[in-house]
Amino acid sequence: MQGRILKGIAGFYYIQPENSEDIYECKAKGIFRKRQQKPLVGDLVEIEVIDSENLKGNIVKLCPRKNSLIRPAVANVDQAVVIFAMKRPDPLFTLLDSFLIMMRKAGLPVVLVFNKADLADESEKEEFRKVYAGADVKILFTSAAKGIGVGEVRDALRGKVSTVAGPSGAGKSTLINMLCGSERMETGAVSEKIGRGKQTTRHTELLEIESNSFIMDTPGFSSLELPEMEKEDLEQYYPEFDRYRGNCYFKRCVHIHEPGCSVRDALEEGDINIKRYESYKSLYETLDGRRRY
Ligand SMILES: Nc1nc2c(ncn2[C@@H]2O[C@H](COP(=O)(O)OP(=O)(O)OP(=O)(O)O)[C@@H](O)[C@H]2O)c(=O)[nH]1
Ligand SMILES: [Mg+2]
Ligand SMILES: [Zn+2]
């Protein structure tokens, strides 16, 4: 029987067969451990039923994956919904960019959701919109707590399998509960003292929000390693540079100190957003530092 992994907790996988409401509790057989293959939420698997009364079975085969991510650890997704709060916690642009780079590297389109819009005013929204206008992402603002903007997110998810990604406390689970129309996921307050989320969600879970629309809630994290890459390649992950890089004097210009740099000219002109550029520079320096260890 074939099904999809909805969640995995403490060695058990919860699997829903196609066209069924049942959820089987399964273990992965030793063959996976030997091959160092870890089943992921979103994986299509074949199971053998060992107890049809109590819905228990074993995973016997992992079907080939369309794609997979490491953080969050999910498989077979069509797009990523990157969620950051506008405030509480304040967004870290380098972290946000690291998410975008990771998704771009995986070939996934991104819906960028700025949540907690109720804590910000119009001019702050406009500022966020400006920063990411050239980043080749769909930008949405929501207040999950107040149910504002949720319909637009639902539209963006229709007919797809989406994974959320973002820092702890951004409101990922709150938004997912709104999308599901019920309290499916536990939510937790942001710590007053340190201004960060408390990592309320500990397990990735696949939820159906309407027929044919699926979303994965995932644990938040506050830091993210950039994927393995040459520092010279980082600039390719900034779509706002596309129009300019061809005009730089040096063919392999990284747009930092080189003379005749068209990207930096565009920055001076205000055609490239300064916040995005600063974040690029900071990530470039991180990659540069990695090699010097
Ligand atoms: N003001 C405001 N608070 C919100 C909004 N959305 C969520 N919150 C609050 O933010 C806190 C964190 O929300 P969660 O949904 O648990 O955040 P999360 O992203 O799932 O966090 P982790 O599971 O730890 O990764 C909760 O206290 C929510 O009530 C919003 O739109 N506005
Ligand atoms: Mg959560
Ligand atoms: Zn340049």
Protein architecture, described:
- With 293 residues, the protein is α/β, with parallel strands linked by helices.
- The mean pLDDT is 95.
- The protein has 3 domains: 2-64, OB fold (Dihydrolipoamide Acetyltransferase, E2P); 69-217, 3-Layer(aba) Sandwich (Rossmann fold), CATH 3.40.50.300; 231-292, Probable gtpase engc, domain 3 (Ribonucleotide Reductase Protein R1, domain 1, Orthogonal Bundle).
- A hairpin with a 2-residue loop joins strand 12 (205-210) and strand 13.
- It is built from 8 helices and 13 strands.
- Zinc ion (ZN) binds next to helix 7.
- Guanosine-5'-triphosphate binds next to helix 5.
Annotate the secondary structure layout.
Blueprint: E1 2-9, E2 12-17, E3 24-28, H1 30-34, E4 44-51, E5 56-62, E6 68-69, E7 74-75, E8 79-85, H2 93-105, E9 110-115, H3 122-132, E10 138-141, H4 150-157, E11 161-165, H5 172-180, E12 205-210, E13 213-217, H6 242-245, H7 262-269, H8 274-292
Parallel strand pairs: 3-5, 8-9, 8-11, 9-10, 11-13
Antiparallel strand pairs: 1-2, 1-4, 2-3, 4-5, 6-7, 12-13
Helix pairs in contact: 2-8
Helix content: 25-40%
Q: Describe the sheet with the most strands.
A: 6 strands, mixed
Mean pLDDT comes to 95
Distance between the termini: 49 Å
Flag low-confidence runs: none
Per CATH, the superfamily of the largest domain is: P-loop containing nucleotide triphosphate hydrolases
Number of domains: 3
Key phrases:
single chain, 293 residues, alpha/beta, OB fold (Dihydrolipoamide Acetyltransferase, E2P), Rossmann fold, Ribonucleotide Reductase Protein R1, domain 1, 3 domains, six-stranded mixed β-sheet, five-stranded mixed beta barrel, 8 helices, 24% strand, binds guanosine-5'-triphosphate, binds magnesium ion, binds zinc ion
